[in-house]
Amino acid sequence: MKKLLAAAGLVVLATPAFAADPTQPVEETVRQVSGYGQIYGGGLWISEFSDETLWAAGGAARINVPFAERWNAQGDFTVDAVGQDGNSLHGVGGAAHIFWRDPASYAFGGFVQASTYGFSGGSDEDLWSWKVGPEAQAYFGNVTLYAQAYYGALESDFLPFDVDLMGIRGVVRYFAQDNLRFDGELGFHRANLSQGGLEADFDTIAAALQATYRFDGTPWSVFGRYQYENISISQGFGEASFDSHKVMVGLRASFGSSTLIDEDRNGATMDTYQPNFVMPFPFL
In this structure, are residues 245 and 55 in contact, taking their beta carbons and an 8 Å threshold? Predict the structure, then answer.
């Protein structure tokens, strides 16, 4: 694996054509605990360095608990890993979202996230990151717009420099049918490295496309996802720029929701960015 950064932030434009709504309006349902678990597998490659593909695998579990009047608490647990030839890097994370939601119009709130990282063969050193920021969604018939921003840091006793993290991300979710969802994402991440008076920025422009289909009358969904990242390194570590590509296919099991659009408007609708290289600042 190569020395690089994964930093994400997304800004997305939705066209007026998405205003057409082939689905029925989403009614506010009786508040109940809901969520889903999902797993995925796939591959990762860096076009400028090698034609070889690293394996990628992971999963997530998200649970939403409504409370009070329109308030929701959502908890996330994520696991991601990449590797090749017996070497691997993995990340285990958790996030908490608190938000107010009107299923017919919008949702807004904030989140905190913490992740820890490990390498094949183990390590006696702790390496972890934290992030905190606002997030909001707007609902327009069969279209959901989602924006999120954050600030955080990568922490460890053995790093010889400080790493500040910041970014924005945006998502468009388009429901062609109640159980057929298409996602488009675009964003920007920055990892700022500083030591004394010296600084360097690792900037990532990230984009993704995803299609999800839920089988009618069942809790089961299948999805496919493609993530692209362009990573550029500023002076201080030398000038460089390269691309990474990640392809995933996965399976999801949901509970407490009847369709994908019901899950989006009444269930575990928030998420967090998962970079191609697992870490917000990979340097293997």
Answer: no
pLDDT tens-digit readout, 175-206: 999 999 999 999 999 999 888 777 888 899 99
Interacting residues of 230 by C-beta distance below 8 A, sequence separation 6+: 204, 205, 241, 242, 243
Listed residue (171, 201, 209, 204) closest to 188, CA to CA = 204
Which residue reads 């959901």 in tokens? 144
Rg of the chain on CA atoms, in Å: 19
Can you spell out the DSSP letters for the chain?
Answer: --B------B-----GGGG---SPPPPPPPP--EEEEEEEEEEEEETTT-S--EEEEEEEEEEEEEETTTEEEEEEEEEEEEEETTEEEEEEEEEEEEEEEETTTEEEEEEEEEEEEEETT--SS--EEEEEEEEEEEEETTEEEEEEEEEEEEE-SS-SSEEEEEEEEEEEEEEEETTEEEEEEEEEEEEEEEETTEEEEEEEEEEEEEEEEE-TTSSEEEEEEEEEEEEEE-TTS--EEEEEEEEEEEEEEEES-SSHHHHHHHS--------TTSSSS-B-
Residue 22 amino acid letter: P
pLDDT in tens, 104-151: 999 999 999 999 998 886 655 688 999 999 999 999 999 999 999 999
pLDDT reported for residue 76: 98
Q: Model-level pTM?
A: 0.85
